[in-house]
Structures are given as C-alpha cells and as structure tokens.
Design brief:
The longest helix is centred in the N-terminal third of the chain and has 38 residues. The protein has 2 domains: 38 residues; 245 residues, no CATH class. The strands form 2 sheets. A 6-stranded antiparallel β-sheet has the order 1-2-12-9-5-6, with no helix packed on it. It is built from 4 helices and 12 strands, in the order H-E-E-H-H-E-H-E-E-E-E-E-E-E-E-E. It is of the alpha+beta class. Strand 1 and strand 2 form a beta hairpin. It starts with a helix and ends with a strand.
Length: 294
C-alpha cells in the first residue's frame, strides 16, 4: 500500500516537472520562431574588403515597422512584459528635486557619480536579469532614418568631437536633446555588455563618452567604439532611460537618435522613450566574413 503522503509528494513533483518542462518547451519554440522571423526580415549588406581580408557582411535585424501587423502585436505583448519586469525588479528610481548647477558643479558631478555607484551596487543583479530579458528580442524598436531632411537635426560628429569621442571600425553613438540621463547598453559577440558600469570589454569595445549622470548638457552624446578591429558575431544595442532630471523643462518623454557605423557603413535610428519604460532593444547587427568567391 502506498502511503498517502508519498503519493501526494509524487504528484506534486510530477506536476512541477511537467510545468517547468512545458515552460521550457514554450520558451524554446518562442526563440526558434523569433530567430526564423529575424532571418526572414533581416537585411544584409556586403562591404568591401577591410585590411586585405575577405568581404565583410553586415546583417541588420528587422525593425518593428518592417514586420507584419501580427508580429507587431506580438512584439507589443513582449514589450509590456519587459515593462512589468522593469517595474517589478525595482529599477525605476524615485524622483528627487534637482539642484541648479552652481560654482560647485564638479563636486555635484562627483556626488552624483557616487550615488549612481551606490545604485548599481544595490541593483546590479536585477539590471543583469532585465538586460538578459531585453537581449532575447529579435525585432528592433527603432525607426530607420531615411529622410535626408532629418540628417541635419542632430550633429552627432560635432558632439563627439566636443567630448573627445573616438571613431573606429564599429562605432555606436547615442544622442538626445535634454538633460535626462539615457544610457547605451551594447551586447557584444563575446557575451559581455558594455555600459556605464563596464566601460571596457575583453573584446576591445570601449564606452569612451558617458554623459548626464549629472545634468550638465541638453545636447548630450554617448559613444561605444571598437577602434582598430571588431570581433565577428552579433551585436545588440539597447537604450535605457536611467534617470529623469527635473531641470529646465526636461520632460519624462525623450526622443533619441542612434547611429551605428560598421566599417564605414552608416545606419541611423530614431526612437522615443518615457521614464520608467523598460530598456529598449533598438537594433542588432551581425558581422561576418565572406570569401572572395561568395
């Protein structure tokens, strides 16, 4: 005769195994479907030989406006899930009154950097968890800038020159037009994530401009660059609305521009974010080498 407690325990364990097995199966199918979708709607560009090697191939992930309506609706469901995840993990900072910049501007900047360091020490694990969720996305939320009339709106090169930003074979630059603090998060082929708490990666990527931890500019820019060589593989580019600075009519909604340069080929994206929103996966691209016979 089977003891009731033993039988009950067996049922619970079996149910648990079925639940987690079903969840893993569903996630696997979702990943496979997302990869198939990305492959179907991605665009590729062949670039001339760099440094005497084979042809370089850049494959860009599809953007939200480029996929069918059904897929756009599915993306919105995933985005709502990311928003809930962002909130539940406590990554939205409480608003505090902002002090006007004064003669102690440098001291205030140092203090704000210290507060950010304290925040990341307390929230690094939740931020890693959230970033991992965002990195699963295979459709970009940015809008490719196609109109020539838009090109003069933001002079990213001028801002980079002002801040001492470098250029290179792969360069990812973020610009916006208020005192808020937006952050670049670049997921590299090596599996690392370059952002304000990890500015130099083992694969030679560098975040060399990180602005508005203290609201010092309403024409800020951030820059991640691989100067001499960049690893092959997939790069994903996220933007996080880290902090809303209540200063000089700066609002909780922010329009940004992202520029990606790969071996001289430029793509630009325009997006909008509101404070409290999940990190946005703006775009992704894959670098690979093609033989001359391709």
């Amino acid at each position: 005769m089977v003891e009731p407690v033993t039988a009950g325990t067996g049922i619970v364990l079996t149910s648990g195994a079925l639940y987690f097995g079903l969840r893993a199966w569903r996630r696997r199918n979702q990943r496979l479907r997302a990869l198939a979708l990305a492959e179907k709607y991605s665009t590729s560009t062949r670039l001339k030989s760099v440094g005497g090697g084979g042809m370089s191939l850049v494959v860009n992930m599809p953007q939200l406006a480029q996929v069918p309506t059904r897929e756009q609706e599915a993306w919105k469901v995933r985005d709502q899930h990311r928003d809930r995840n962002h909130m539940e993990l406590g990554l939205i900072q409480p608003e505090v009154p902002e002090l006007e910049l004064d003669a102690n501007e440098e001291q205030e900047r140092i203090s704000e950097v210290g507060r950010r360091d304290e925040w990341i020490q307390a929230n690094e694990s939740p931020l890693v968890e959230h970033a991992a969720l965002v990195s699963e996305e295979h459709i970009g939320s940015g809008v490719v800038v196609a109109e020539e009339s838009d090109e003069h709106e933001v002079d990213i090169d001028e801002r980079l020159e002002r801040e001492g930003g470098e250029s290179g074979v792969v360069q990812i630059s973020l610009a916006w037009d208020d005192y808020n603090d937006l952050d670049l998060h670049v997921f590299t082929p090596s599996g690392e994530r370059i952002y304000f708490n990890n500015k130099i990666s083992d694969c030679d990527g560098i975040l060399d401009v990180d602005m508005n931890v203290r609201p010092v500019s309403n024409t800020p820019v951030e820059n991640v660059v691989w100067k001499e060589s960049a690893p092959l593989g997939t790069y994903k580019v996220g933007v996080h609305f880290y902090k809303h600075h209540r200063r000089r009519r700066t609002k909780k909604k922010c329009k940004f521009r992202l520029r990606v340069i790969t071996h001289g080929k430029t793509k630009e994206y325009i997006g909008r974010m509101k404070y409290g929103q999940a990190m946005q996966m703006v775009t992704s691209f894959t670098l690979s080498e093609l033989s001359k016979e391709y």
